[in-house]
């Protein structure tokens, strides 16, 4: 490009280069931003370079947005599964070692007074077969006291039919919604439960079969629980499973599910007898470890999208430097320093990455915040709760993870501009004008 053309397009360029006392301009001077901005604009001659810049921008935007959305969904899955699995099963489990838990009432009272304990719930647990005139299914029967059942939010606050009032006196049972649907039952109907652990006779143990009134139907929101859990009064469960005034386990609900490590020692002291203590992390270690591994692998895989987009910035800038070699030579002969040339192309490449990161940040947050609505609008019925654990796609955005994604994308974008910018700064103006 001719010197006169450069002067016409950037007025008083020589004055800008001169700076103070001929010592050069300050870093990131206005003329550097002006040249970088013009290099980013689409023109017929450099249209291909601009297309590469556009694809780099879209790649970084989609990569950042996808990372934020996927991490939000993974966090939402962990939170929902943790709240449902732990919310209905408790955080710590106290089982007997040397003798049955016949002193469960006093023991539960002592454990309930430990700091950080929300509820100590004695329970009789056993497997049974539930049936009605419409079918049958294996179930997990849990015998609990009525007052304790009212303190389990996953059950007490999700009643879809019937009531838990007078649960002990009524002698009925509470069943999950999906179990009720599979057996064709609703509140007020009769369900038949059968267990092989019945009465002991001279000819062996006879199965016990008994019918109960369905007092309430609850919906935890997790198909595995809604399809298998049956709650009955504690005294009735003791009789049904031949428990001689004892319970199977005492479940401890803490104020903070992640503080099980600190609570274990105090619970052992409060028990005042040998007990076996386990927690939700031990029982669900494989499940939540798999979620964590999947989350980390997805982060690595999706980061490659941003990396590929950053490499597109490298290729686009190298082509731009080659195409603008004559311009670079003229700018150098007019007094532009190597640092100024490097900063021009640094601004050009970084602008693509930073603008793409900001666009991806906004897109990811908007999509994550409205993920449930988008799912219900575009894919109604696609999230089948009978196949999956949850009835809808959960999402929870973590601020620290979003900051890490944005920072990672910006750092990759800046690193991608270093080599092309350095190459432009090292360009020999004499050779460029001779062969340009």
TrEMBL record:
GO CC, alphabetical: plasma membrane protein complex
Family that this chain belongs to: Belongs to the ABC-4 integral membrane protein family. LolC/E subfamily.
Keyword line: Cell membrane, Membrane, Transmembrane, Transmembrane helix, Transport
Spans through the membrane: 48-74, 297-321, 341-367, 402-419
Domain ABC3 transporter permease C-terminal: 299-429
Naturally occurring in which organism (per UniProt): Methylobacterium aquaticum
Domain of life: Bacteria
One GO term (biological process): lipoprotein transport
Subcellular location: Cell membrane
Protein name: Multidrug ABC transporter substrate-binding protein
MacB-like periplasmic core domain sequence ranges: 56-268
Keyword Transport on entry: yes
Main location: membrane
Membrane topology: Multi-pass membrane protein
Listed InterPro entries: ABC3_permease_C, Lipoprotein-release_system, LolCE_TM, MacB_PCD
């Amino acid at each position: 490009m001719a010197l006169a053309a450069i002067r016409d397009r950037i007025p008083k360029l020589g004055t800008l280069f001169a700076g103070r006392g001929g010592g050069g301009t300050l870093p990131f001077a206005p003329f550097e931003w002006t040249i970088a901005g013009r290099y980013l604009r689409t023109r017929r001659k450099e249209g291909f370079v601009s297309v590469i810049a556009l694809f780099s921008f879209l790649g970084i935007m989609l990569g950042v947005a996808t990372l934020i959305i996927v991490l939000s969904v993974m966090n939402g899955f962990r939170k929902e599964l943790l709240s449902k699995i732990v919310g209905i099963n408790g955080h710590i489990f106290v089982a007997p070692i040397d003798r049955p838990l016949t002193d469960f009432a006093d023991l539960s009272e002592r454990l309930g007074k430990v700091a950080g304990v929300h509820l100590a719930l004695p329970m009789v647990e056993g497997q049974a077969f539930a049936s009605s005139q419409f079918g049958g299914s294996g179930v997990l029967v849990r015998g609990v006291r009525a007052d304790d059942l009212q303190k389990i939010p996953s059950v007490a606050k999700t009643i879809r039919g019937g009531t838990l009032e007078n649960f002990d006196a009524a002698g009925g049972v509470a069943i999950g919604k999906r179990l009720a649907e599979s057996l064709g039952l609703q509140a007020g109907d009769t369900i038949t439960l059968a267990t092989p652990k019945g009465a002991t006779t001279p000819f062996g143990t006879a199965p016990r079969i008994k019918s109960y009134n369905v007092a309430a139907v609850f919906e935890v929101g997790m198909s595995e629980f809604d399809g298998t859990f049956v709650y009955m009064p504690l005294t009735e469960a003791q009789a049904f499973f031949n428990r001689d005034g004892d319970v199977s386990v005492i479940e401890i609900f803490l104020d903070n599910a992640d503080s099980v490590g600190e609570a274990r020692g105090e619970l052992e002291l409060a028990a005042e007898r040998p007990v076996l203590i386990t927690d939700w992390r031990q029982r669900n270690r494989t499940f939540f470890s798999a979620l964590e591994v999947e989350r980390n692998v997805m982060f690595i895989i999706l980061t490659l999208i941003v990396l590929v987009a950053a490499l597109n910035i490298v290729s686009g800038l190298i082509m731009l430097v080659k195409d603008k070699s004559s311009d670079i030579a003229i700018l150098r002969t007019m007094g532009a320093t190597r640092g100024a040339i490097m900063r021009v192309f640094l601004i050009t490449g970084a602008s693509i990455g930073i603008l793409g990161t900001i666009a991806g940040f906004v897109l990811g947050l908007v999509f994550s915040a409205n993920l449930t609505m988008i799912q219900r609008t575009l894919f109604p019925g696609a999230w089948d709760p009978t196949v999956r654990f949850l009835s809808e796609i959960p999402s929870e955005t973590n601020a620290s993870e979003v900051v890490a994604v944005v920072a990672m994308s910006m750092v990759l974008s800046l690193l991608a501009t270093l080599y092309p910018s350095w190459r432009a700064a090292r360009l020999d103006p004499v050779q460029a004008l001779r062969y340009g």
